[in-house]
Amino acid sequence: MQHFNVKVFAVQDFDLTPYVGVFNGWIQKQIAPELLIDVADYLHVPSGPGMLLIGHEANYSLDQTDGKLGLLYNRKAVLPGSAPENLTQALNSALWACEQLSQETGVQFDKSHYQVLVNDRLLAPNSEQTFQALLPDLQAVFAKHFGHSHFTIAQTSPDVRKRFRVDVRLNN
Amino acid sequence: MKSTNSLWKTNLHGQTAPDLERELDIYETELELRRQGKLDEKVFAETRLRRGAYGQRYDNGQRWDGEKTQQLAFPSELTKGPGTAWDAPGMVRVKIPFGGMNAHQLEVMAELAEEYSDNIAHVTTRQDFQLHFVHIEDTPALMRRLAAVGITTREACGNSVRNVTACPIAGVCHTEAFDVTPYAHGLAMFLLGHPDTQDFGRKFKIAFSGCVDKACGLVMLHDMGAIAKVQVVDGEEKRGFALYVGGGLGSVPHQAKLFAEFLPEEELLPISQAISRVYAKLGEKKNRNRARIKFLIAQLGIDEFRRLVLEERKILPFDPRWSEFLHDLHGLDEEPLHPAGALPAGEFPTGFAEWHRTNAYAQKQAGYATVTIKLPLGDITPDQLRGLADLARSYTRETIRLTVDQNIVLRWVSQADLVAFYLGLQALQLAQAGAGTLIDITSCPGTDTCKLGISASRGLASELSQRLAAKAHLLDEAIQGLHIKVSGCFNSCGQHHVADLGFYGVSRRSGNYTVPHFQVVLGGQWHENAGAYGLAIVAVPSKNIPAVVDRLTSAYITEREKAESFQAYIKRVGKAQIKASLEDLTKIPAHDDNPSFYSDWGDTREFTLGDIGEGECAGEVVSRIEFDLAFAEREAFEAQILLEKGDFQLAGERAYGAMLQSARALVREQLYDVPSDPEQLVNEFRTRYYDTQLFWDPFAGGKFGQYLFHAHKQAHLPYSPDEAHRRIEEAQLVVEAAHACYQRLSKK
Fold first, then answer.
1. Is residue A160 less than 8 Å (CB to CB) from chain B?
2. Which domains are present in chain B?
3. How confident is the model over B295-313, as pLDDT tens digits?
4. CB-based contact B1 A76, cutoff 8 Å
């Protein structure tokens, strides 16, 4: 499985305007493992992709889809690993970016709530079948990440037109 | 980049029109040839441009990072055009003839924006969609998915006939002579891939309008524009067009000239074809700055141009398609989904009244409205596209059109449904009022993604939109109908010449710094199909442009005489006085006092001109013969692939086709109307190139020509594996010999 996206939600909303400068700084220093190319500002679009840092292998963004702000890692380039390995790579990259932003600007992310999607409808149509097929990998990766299995994984929408996407939440 | 790219071909097989599928197979082969270094980068660049795959800013592998120009270390050293990195993200332009779409097509746009782009679909000022940050290797799959729902990107860029645009309210408009939709569609389909449109020196843009005095079609700023007209001939009402040619914006705007006061409908296609042929034959090819048809017409004069076109028309070989489309003029007619109704009485939701005033147009069909969905800077998200598709299905028969104002309209909404429709839009965050007003600002991509951009047109447009929208309810009625349009440079993609308040990006030096500026353009006219072009009066630092807007609109409100239009006000007061009134705003504060003036809107980097690249708007100037020979090479390559797959018959036929294509390329150099019949073609080749020894190799003599003659003689016979193999080897030699012949003749 390829093209995993992982979103880590922000603890609270914050003004994204200054992040054009923050992301430009990342390009200047090329601090990510991926080649960073450009910044795309979509703050004028409500519930849109927000502020994007365009990379060659992956994009990082402060994403506002569904009106929920979070750091989104979007893996574009193909990886050689298995599904759990590739999901782990996306999760770790998203967490690395959150940590980086926290250090630079003080913003906080909720490490108990994630969204995972597969950005390829041929690989992963939004169906129960895909969910059942990927569930073991999702469970394994997040069990390792949280250190336990007290979390819930659920599909976010039954709409077959949408990409396959799940919410991963720590249980109360 | 996508792991599933190669699967889409199989997955969509049978869902795509065979000609579109073949076209995409060809493109995929060309991409593969370029990847293997077997296709020249210049030829590939024009090839991809003609498929709508366009370059984007920084694709030369360099980007100013605020302190230094950084080299972007793309993994591949391959190029997709001169100075254009293979791995650099690019733009794909999706042609939508007359802006017409259905719900499923919107949904597919949503999918593509998510999977290949940056989660945004962008509506352009010419009723296209654009997707940005797309990898070149994803483009064939992306195009296949479009083709499966009847959309092509073919000739969306490059030196070709671009998207044919039309008034978005054609068919529902009160003032139109008749619905221009089927004519726009008919002409678009006729000219798409037409042999007579393949050898232009620059792009060619066509627009249709239903009436003279409205702005919707913007006919006067197009290479060719048609305004619907009805004339009584022999007591019968006859449809036709006032036809204009040679209009265009760009750095040197030209108003279109009247070609025909009344062109009967049956002459629309043949005259367009004749115009294409005259342009292809006589238009400038080497100097791209003077290669648009407007320069040819200016040089010849409209009378001589008309004479040449009419002469060409007389010798055009008859084509039944000229009139076929006229038998199906109602094929694109639209029907409502719900019965006509009236707006219900009672209390309306908050914001509805204002939205209804600015965004709902009462159609000529009583009880129906065309609703404008105002998009911020032409941008829409995939979720919004899907939501809009749902609304289009619920309230209309999917009668959707894109507009040149970078918005979307839904036609045939029953007035009785408007409140529910508005609430549906609200849920999608698409219910912003103010369509067609001062806050509905048009902008080209500018420095965000365009290689030619000087200043941040989108950044400025966004800033102005936010400021004006915040006080929209306070804006004087006199200025609400004004248009603001912004271009990132003088090339006018934002159509600044026809705005009430137009701006285009420039720069000025201040000490050791370069400062982003915009020229203020006044006097333009949006009405009467863009009836007058404005002129730049003064350059103002970008950060002072909002103050310019405030000052000019305030002055107009207070100083205008009764019912005086903005254009009339500007004319009466005079540009000298207006320029003087802006004088203080032209001053640049010292860097230490206000460093914000030294970076552009929405960009924290210190401003530079260093990121401007080589534009691809004009496409690569690749001669027709180079293109034709590349076509022959690709056919020879495809023959090899077919041989590998064991399809010997098709492999042999394709190899023979490559030989014919080589001959066609050379013959066309001497004979414009090269015959399509193989027998005639081979005879022409024999007379012109073989018997004259022009095709003869200095060492091998006439051998390669004989390969062609032999293959032609045997063409009706089946191919054995050996014969197919041999034919491919011969075809490759014929293609090479044609290249060599062309080079020898070029040197002479």
1. no
2. 7-147 (3.30.70), 172-328 (3.30.413.10), 352-427 (3.30.70.3340), 442-598 (3.30.413.10), 624-747 (1.20.120.330)
3. 999 999 999 999 999 999 9
4. yes
